[in-house]
Fold this sequence. Notes:
The protein is an all-alpha fold and 293 residues long. The protein has twelve helices and two strands, in the order H-H-E-E-H-H-H-H-H-H-H-H-H-H. It folds into two domains: 3-48; 67-292, MetI-like (MetI-like fold, Orthogonal Bundle), CATH 1.10.3720. A hairpin with a 6-residue loop joins strand 1 (59-60) and strand 2 (67-68). The chain starts with a helix and ends with a helix.
Amino acid sequence: MGKRSLRLLNREYAAKILFIISASAAIIAVGLICVFLFLQGLPAMWDMGIIRFLTGTDWRPTWDPPRFGILPMIVGSLYVTAGAILFGVPIGIFAAVFMAKFCPRPIYVILKPAINLLAGIPSVVYGYFGMVVLVPFVRENFGGNGNSIFTASILLGMMILPTIITISENAIRAIPPEIYEGAIALGASHERATFKVVLPAAKSGVMASVILGIGRAVGETMAVRMVAGNQAILRMPHEFLSGARTLTANVVIELGYAYGEHRAALIATGVVLFVFVMIINALFSILKKKESA
């Protein structure tokens, strides 16, 4: 074996080791987060009573004895996330289809960078936009004081659009052109071939974009804190114009001054949020397995 071949083998081996370390780093990071959260949060949940902690409707850390019930925050997170899905997912998917199959080139070269720019805007800027624009708009046209579940849902729907549009568009463009051409050859129109053949073929990638968008909506903190009202009160579905507090906002609002049992309760709240994200990813994996079966 020549020196050149030996050097190539050494480079390939070094690259292989580097890739293994990089992949392992992500796994180790997730594992360490799991260990920290569960070691810190589960004992606190056990001491407070898991059922009482999850189903309690009072969050009163200053009372004697304090009460830690996160059901209002769980419901608030579900409402805001569901509203963001209703607002963002249809618009995102249709926008991705338009960009992949219908958008003229002169418009595409402007629209694509604009969507990429939306993905890079910090959450606090979205929150400021929500406070200055969305809150007064909702207050004047729908009622309430503007700081509400409805406002937070609209804002989160806007924030998940870049993720859904970009990944869905890439999934649609990844479909082999022969599939589209075959539908056209069988007499389908451009619209029917796109929506009845190409989009279903890209369903796995579109679902991935939706799941990532949901994860972004569930984990968003600053923007929701700025527009949702931050009221730790159990809301009913018809109270979408009232304020609410999400799990993430609950942690970020109080963690800076919490100590003792209060701090442990906030870490336990993080455990619940982490479990929610794990459930979402597990459901996505199950759906992918069913599609491939």
